[in-house]
Amino acid sequence: MTVRYPLALALLAVFAGTTALAQKPAAEAEPAKPAPQEAPAAPAATDANAEKIKRLEARLAELERRLATLERQSARAAGPSPEQEQAATGLLNQLQQDIQNGDYDAAKAKLAQLGKDYPGTRAQRQSARLSRELAVVGNPAPETLGVQTWFQGESDVKWDGQGTTLVVFWEEWCPHCRREVPKVEQTYQRLREQGLQVVGLTKLTRGVSEEKVRSFIETNKLSYPIAKENGQMSQALNVSGIPAAAVIKDGKVVWRGHPSRLTDEMLAGWL
């Protein structure tokens, strides 16, 4: 008995230990880590970058515009070259020929080209007057002549939107008018039978009296109607210098310019 007892205790101890190990729960496995996910895009940052790009593009466009302006100003400051002056003069001659031929659309196109391609040239400066004249071509004529005083011919005038009327603006003190107005009388005599009506308008500026006007009419044997206007016609027809003339056909302005540029052939085409 004494020999087996320690052995039994030892076996019991081994058995107890084995049982304990068998009964010990297995270690818990670590939970699986979720797979990493891509970070979502940052829309705010993207929008900010796009806005910056837009601002930079706008600044670039503005700088380009300013550069173009400076280049034009520099060219103007330097003055047009002889070649530019020559080209501008040729274009102005073509423009005037278009007006002579009644091709006002072509004339207006060349006028715009003069201002764009040849600024500062003598021809471009001269074209300013033509620009004012062309601006009224095609406009309806005023409903009345705006007469304050008739010197002669009131009963002969028909202003009813029918027929062709040559309106001449002049002043007694103007040397060019004193030369051109008698020539208008000759034109009137040649074309009146074909239906041309002529009306001369003056404002009596620079202190000119009615007596001086009547004396001028009598001296030059003018027979067409002449009156003092209130400024309505000259304003409507962009008259800023004298002598000036306009042709009204069936209530519309068909020509505007210096009376010396009118020919019998041009007038006959409107009769």
List the helices and strands and how they pair.
Layout: H1 4-23, H2 43-78, H3 82-101, H4 104-117, H5 122-136, E1 147-152, E2 164-169, H6 175-191, E3 196-202, H7 210-219, E4 226-229, H8 232-236, E5 244-249, E6 252-257, H9 264-270
Parallel strand pairs: 2-3, 3-4
Antiparallel strand pairs: 1-4, 2-5, 5-6
Q: What is the compact description of this entry?
A:
Among the domains are: 56 residues; 124 residues, Glutaredoxin. Helices cover 53% and strands 13% of the residues. The protein has 9 helices and 6 strands; from the N terminus they run αααααββαβαβαββα.
What does this structure look like?
With 271 residues, this protein is an alpha/beta fold. Among the domains are: 81-136; 147-270, 3-Layer(aba) Sandwich (Glutaredoxin). The chain is built from 9 helices and 6 strands; from the N terminus they run αααααββαβαβαββα. It has helices spanning 4-23, 43-78, 82-101, 104-117, 122-136, 175-191, 210-219, 232-236, 264-270; strands at 147-152, 164-169, 196-202, 226-229, 244-249, 252-257. α6 (175-191) links the parallel β2 and β3 (196-202).
Q: What are the salient characteristics of this protein?
A:
271 residues, single chain, Glutaredoxin, 53% helix, elongated, alpha/beta
Instruction: Sum up the overall morphology in one term.
Output: elongated
**Assembly state here?**
single chain
User: Spatial order of the strands in the main sheet?
Assistant: 1-4-3-2-5-6
CATH top level class name of the domain at 147-270: Alpha Beta
Question: What Rg, in angstroms, do the CA atoms define?
Answer: 48 Å
